[in-house]
Batch of 2 targets.
Target 1
Amino acid sequence: MIKKTKPKKIREVSVDKILSAAQDEFILQGYKGATVQAIADSAGMPKANVLYYFKNKENIYHAVLEQTLNMWDEGIGDILLEDGPKLAIEKFVKAKVIMSFTNPKASKIYAMEIIQGAQHLQEFTRSYLHQWVQSKAEIFQCWIDKGQMQPIDPVSLIFLIWSSTQHYADFDNQILTIKNQTDYTENDITQVTDFLTNFILRGCGLK
Amino acid sequence: MIKKTKPKKIREVSVDKILSAAQDEFILQGYKGATVQAIADSAGMPKANVLYYFKNKENIYHAVLEQTLNMWDEGIGDILLEDGPKLAIEKFVKAKVIMSFTNPKASKIYAMEIIQGAQHLQEFTRSYLHQWVQSKAEIFQCWIDKGQMQPIDPVSLIFLIWSSTQHYADFDNQILTIKNQTDYTENDITQVTDFLTNFILRGCGLK
DNA sequence: GTCTATATGCTGATAGAC
DNA sequence: GTCTATCAGCATATAGAC
């Protein structure tokens, strides 16, 4: 029993190390620029071992992408009709801000993929994401019809919340440079959460 | 005289064709993924000609980046103290939206560069951009002190306007897919301008 | 200025010993 | 599972004829 679980652990640990190293390399160098050798070096193992676990570079990238989408899915925070517009927006903005600050790498991988034409995740955007936006837009429309919030375009609102929160992940380099900081602080997270929550609530006529 | 200007024209036209083709390739394939051969094919000339005009690939990329930053600079739209907060924000948002829709490629090149750590434009962000944000934040602070707008963090406001407008350029693929469109229409530009202008003005307590 | 041919180096991927 | 050695292919960049 012990002998049977041990090799499983080795695989898990190795795979995790490779995926983490690969994420860094793909962000910094792009898909083509990231070399299997660099990923192996960063993961602390020979190149052949990396290819033993993943067979080829494209498989590594797909695994990184899959991990990123799962994280996006978990961290998105749901928009629930019964919460009402104020609480729902507060929850949603907070969830997105926290994800941007705690996992900027996932956001960056996703952003690069979309900017470059979403060549590796056509099905995801084309079906799942479309459906997600549509269903959430209906909830916002419901609140608008009941006079619970300003009559604004719900889809545009979702785009604004996505963009304004993800900005702190994708453009962290630029933001830190402009603010003369080397890293984000705990204070930054609460300050940004407060600013965006209040600003967006006012924009929706909820404050 | 005629003979002297003709070779100049050839150079200009060729350089423009190369830069345009290179921009497309760098966006779709990344720096390393874009090949000089592909750029040459897209520009409709032999590879050796491309290298005749630019010497090497890095020079091509730098030229694309320089062109992008010049465009950013021209299209940014200024924030003037004498305009007052309402008009200034209206002008600024409109200028950014129009730039995002008319020149998404420039925004994408810039976004990729920042996400990947701004390895090729350190000086720009580190001095010019910092200064720009600081000077505009002072103007907003001035209006806030005079009670002309809600007391919010000006730097966060600038980030929100940047992100929410650039989103339509950088993530155009995702947005078009979600909206089930193949291209942006004239109507999209006015709709987005109206939405963002009104939303942001309300967020600033100006409506 | 234009284009062909080629040198040089690096990368992905595999074979096979341990 | 781990690692060394190696191959085949491709990309940058240059040389040199036209």
Target 2
Amino acid sequence: MSRRPTSFGKLAGAGPPVATIYDVAARAGVSIKSVSRVLNKEPHVSEKLRLKILDAVAALDFHPNVSARGLAGKSRLVLVLVDAELTLSHLRSEHGNLYFDRLQLGAMLKCREHGYHLIVELVAPGADKLGETLSSLRPDGVVLTPPSCDDVTILDKLDRAGTPYARISPSRFFERGLRVFIDEAQAAQEITASLIDLGHRRIGFIAGPKDYGASQTRQAGYLQAMSAAGLEVKPEWISLGDFTFESGIDSAAALLGQTPRPTAIFASNDDMALAVVHKAAELGIKVPDALSVVGFDDALSARFCLPPLTTVRQPISEMASKAVELLIAGGEAKDCTDAAQLPYRLVIRGSTAMVSSD
Amino acid sequence: MSRRPTSFGKLAGAGPPVATIYDVAARAGVSIKSVSRVLNKEPHVSEKLRLKILDAVAALDFHPNVSARGLAGKSRLVLVLVDAELTLSHLRSEHGNLYFDRLQLGAMLKCREHGYHLIVELVAPGADKLGETLSSLRPDGVVLTPPSCDDVTILDKLDRAGTPYARISPSRFFERGLRVFIDEAQAAQEITASLIDLGHRRIGFIAGPKDYGASQTRQAGYLQAMSAAGLEVKPEWISLGDFTFESGIDSAAALLGQTPRPTAIFASNDDMALAVVHKAAELGIKVPDALSVVGFDDALSARFCLPPLTTVRQPISEMASKAVELLIAGGEAKDCTDAAQLPYRLVIRGSTAMVSSD
DNA sequence: GTGAAAGCGCTAACAT
DNA sequence: ATGTTAGCGCTTTCAC
């Protein structure tokens, strides 16, 4: 039985009474350890005790204090790290950030489901303040997105801190940590094939920056689809972008300036695909009549584009949810799967059409 | 001098050594209380000690543990509560949520500046799980946005928990808690006046839902501008919407079906204004040639609209930042200002023009 | 100006 | 199956 003083019934600071585990134990006439056992669903509690304790918990509206739990064991905190530069530039561009919204909501809902809480923070490439964040917050797990999920400096710091992490859409070139992804190569191949099915033969490709694992994978998918169809790919059909709208404009200019020019362009993300549509309009090339355009991601730009973009939809919310799930499960059992592949979906919209017969 | 065992130098759980306040004290040859004093910038520490301690802190890369601090005193956590229904529907609509992104980033950056951490959670109108969240997380402050910031159930729960809160764009009808806002009435008046300056006389208005404080305030601004210009407002010029695109379509239909019809429409948010533009297109009414349209908020819909919407820009990031600032300051000094008004800005885009001369 | 000791509310290791 | 006792890493009295 508790002999410890309790704050219940008197004011704690500015706030009113808040029940603690001692109050629950006292009310149920048991020890705090039994209460703790029930709270954590540990075995070795008689059903009778369990019910008495649950009663007391409900009666006192008791909820375990996250800080206390964190100090003693698990923090019940999951940290999502997003790239600072990327996020800030998205915000400045005023184009919204569906990826971020979906990611966060997916992660948040899964956290809530398990009594965890989500903290979102920015990381710069050097991961300057990461060590501080980790050692002061001690999250039970960290969710990483591109490009941070492939940043060795960041992964090293996490390993050193002993903090489990889940990487969303990681590069295929190293298998560290938990990983959640779609089959980007197959998706890229499939969307390229859909262009080929529409009769296109000269299909241009705009690649992403080297430091994104996705860049190489998507390009590989494109190449494979072309070769599977027995189509040659001229070197000048591939232009290097960096996933920004601006780089898309440049690449589009390079691609559309050729003679004969491509009848279709696969930009490896939607922002660049949007740029292709803009550039085409500027050059008087009708989309999709004279040029089919496809992107990747199903970002906002795909929907607001005129015509709306045919693209590949990544289930970001679900991926984030899965990442959190893996992290939470990982804390409870070490034998959990360390990689999960989720399904993507081709979204056919107005930016693609049969090749014109000219 | 510390006699307490320390984890420094040995593995703590899965993780490597992490310095604690005891390690710092030991290294500096002082008591943990002195370290604590320096960390919290308390007075009564000699400069000599201070420097020695700061040295040790740097050498050990020490960062105070948030959970421990939370247990003993302040949690260093700020909670942002966003309306569940609103947020989920935004996500489902796949139109992005600039408001949410801006809000969160503004709050997050201010938190980081002060060594605080931000947690974002959803609240349903009944505020079901709010009590649980508050008592388990014990945040030092809560940021509230519309419509939650005017939800008495929520405010009551917060008051009962003794948790300080800052309301962003609160209703003017009750002055509870800290408040951050723009002068919505004046903004509404000004944007209405800008329409009048363009020669418009028959100006329709689409109101927002009753449970938003902003609705009434914006309507008041509209009415005041009209009356200040000596213009009569016919009852049928005011249509009630609910801030959704769909309701905007209905209101637009009602307004544009009149004879003579309005030459300009002020929709009290951008989503409804976007709907007006869509409806006008459907009816063959050219914007801005035959109809000027203005919105409010400068949301994504304002930018992606064709033509882009003239609207009022709320500095959401700054408002969130200010809200966090007030909350953090409130913890340190009770005499802080409890309300802050920030500047708005009229954004003139392509959806407004001189009234046509017919 | 400085420090020793007592919690904060939990979980974990060890009895019983 | 249940309880006792230490901490976890800080802040806060209250001594000196």
